[in-house]
């Protein structure tokens, strides 16, 4: 028997970005309960760096009512099974207008697997050429913010950058010696 068995599953909410599912479950002990799951497609997060400059994006995040600085990132709701490197290249160009000569794979992480099945692929982009942004309507307020790598590390340490995916991507890339 699995640690937790799904007895029944129902969709309680769905839109083009996510689906919320409520599962009736039975634990190995026999105790039953409810588990809420948010289903979202995996995304790519990209650390674009040229010499000592990292190209961040800043946008208003409605859920916390603040503008936040983060690495370019996103998913393709219309094509959730897209090749992760193509997704990363596409998101980089869409959000920043940058085209990379090389995209080095850093790894895969889960965003918050306690309630959500979404994960993300991390890439370091180098050999950057400036092109034109191709923002979605939801990104109309997005700004590209170039900062030095030292500033990026200081902003993570001070807590000015609060996006966990960004902090994780930078940390993992550093630990692997890719930046």
From TrEMBL:
SUPFAM superfamilies: Nudix. Its cofactor is Mg(2+). Residues 38-169 form the Nudix hydrolase domain. Keywords: Hydrolase. InterPro entries: NUDIX_hydrolase-like_dom_sf, NUDIX_hydrolase_dom. It catalyses: GDP-alpha-D-mannose + H2O = alpha-D-mannose 1-phosphate + GMP + 2 H(+). The keyword Hydrolase applies. It comes from the Bacteria. PROSITE patterns: NUDIX. Belongs to the Nudix hydrolase family. NudK subfamily. PANTHER family: NUDIX HYDROLASE DOMAIN-CONTAINING PROTEIN, UDP/ADP-SUGAR PYROPHOSPHATASE. This is GDP-mannose pyrophosphatase. The lineage of its organism: Bacteria, Pseudomonadati, Pseudomonadota, Gammaproteobacteria, Alteromonadales.
């Amino acid at each position: 028997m699995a640690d937790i068995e799904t007895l029944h599953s129902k969709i309680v909410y769905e839109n083009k970005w996510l689906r919320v599912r409520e599962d009736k479950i039975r634990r190995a002990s026999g105790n039953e309960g409810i588990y809420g799951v948010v289903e979202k497609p995996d995304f790519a997060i990209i650390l674009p760096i040229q010499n000592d400059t990292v190209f961040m994006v800043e946008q208003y995040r409605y859920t916390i009512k603040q503008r936040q600085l983060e690495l370019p990132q996103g998913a393709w709701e219309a094509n959730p099974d897209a090749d992760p490197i193509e997704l990363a290249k596409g998101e980089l160009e869409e959000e920043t207008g940058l085209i990379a000569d090389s995209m080095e794979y850093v790894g895969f992480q889960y965003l918050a697997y306690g309630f959500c099945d979404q994960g993300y692929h991390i890439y370091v982009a180098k050999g950057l050429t400036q092109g034109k942004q191709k923002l979605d309507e939801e990104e109309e307020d997005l700004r590209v913010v170039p900062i030095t790598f030292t500033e990026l590390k200081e902003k993570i340490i001070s807590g000015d950058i609060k996006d966990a995916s960004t902090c994780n991507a930078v940390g993992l890339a550093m630990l692997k010696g890719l930046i």
